[in-house]
From TrEMBL:
Domain Calcineurin-like phosphoesterase: 1-228
InterPro entries with a match to the protein in the record: Calcineurin-like_PHP, Metallo-depent_PP-like, Pantetheine_PDE, Phosphoesterase_putative
GO molecular function, one term: hydrolase activity
UniProt-listed NCBIfam families: acc_ester
Alphabetical list of Pfam families matching this protein: Metallophos
Protein name as annotated: Putative phosphoesterase
Superkingdom of source: Bacteria
Length: 271
């Protein structure tokens, strides 16, 4: 069975910058690869309604079912404390993996949830308060991700969801999907990129990685969020996949079809 991995398509933003929708070309690529299923690790677009619109359009044009978990952009809202409502909308959609694992044959399960960040990647000398004030200056979630609770508490909820789902599928090989970076080695301090160093605390949580390291039945880990194509790497007995499309201005070429090809990966499993 072949699963095509994508993330961070940012369809709304890329549509605006390119002057056309990226969906027809993504759908054409999916038809060409002809996977059994598509997995998108968040940041399809801003807000749940738009994400759902793009997901349905992509499914329709490609003819392949898609599984989705929200990214931080997916739950953006301009209303106070309403990000959980955006999250719920996405959770209730047929594409959602949240509490709705994709069981593949007798041996495999794709499970996932949004994930979040808890400042565990901050520099050692930084206090929590410094992270909070840097979030306000450098990170747009401070204006649009409104959960009505601290980031650590959102991360706690996500960890609980991951624990429950991992325990429920202990007898299967697991493909784990979340939007955020679970491992510290993917969040190095940069010697020259000051902005990156400021936003590292909002990249993910090492507690997600700790949980995955304690879960030997996890065979594949998929994430996005960082718009750097780390690719697929071996980590002990796991494969770790990071294949974001990102924004037009971050691409190496001006060729959308080429970028989609470069920002995707196929997992083959024996079901
Ligand atoms: Fe993104
Ligand atoms: Fe993101």
């Amino acid at each position: 069975m072949r699963l095509l991995i994508l993330s961070d398509l940012h369809c709304d933003n890329n549509h605006q910058r390119l002057g056309r929708s990226i969906i027809p070309e993504v759908a054409a690529y999916i038809r060409e690869v002809a996977p059994d299923h598509v997995i998108v690790a968040g940041d399809m677009a801003g807000g749940a309604k738009r994400c759902i619109q793009y997901i349905e359009e992509l499914e329709q044009l490609s003819g392949v079912r898609l599984s989705y978990i929200p990214g931080n952009h997916s739950i953006w809202t301009d209303k106070l404390n309403d990000s959980w409502k955006e999250y719920e909308q996405l959770r209730n959609h047929h594409s959602s993996l949240i509490g709705n694992p994709l069981l593949l044959g007798e041996k495999w399960a794709v499970i996932g949830d949004m994930g979040w960040y808890d400042y565990s990647y901050r520099e050692e000398s930084w206090t929590r308060e410094e992270c909070v004030s840097r979030k306000e200056s450098y990170w747009r979630d401070s204006a649009f991700a409104k959960f009505g609770m601290d980031d650590e508490a959102v991360t706690d909820r996500m960890l609980e969801s991951f624990r429950t789902q991992l325990a429920a599928h202990r007898d299967r090989n697991v493909i784990f999907v979340n939007h955020f970076i679970p491992y510290r080695d993917y969040v190095p301090i940069s010697p020259h990129n000051k902005v990156w160093n400021m936003i590292r605390p909002f990249m993910g949580s090492s507690r997600i990685g700790d949980l995955l390291d304690e879960s030997p039945h996890v065979r594949h880990v998929i994430f996005g969020h960082v718009h750097w194509r780390f690719g697929s790497k071996r980590r002990g007995d796991q494969w770790v996949h990071c294949h974001p499309l990102g924004y037009v201005y971050e691409w190496k070429t001006e060729d959308l079809a080429q970028e989609i090809r470069d920002a995707s990966h196929v997992i083959e499993i024996d079901v």
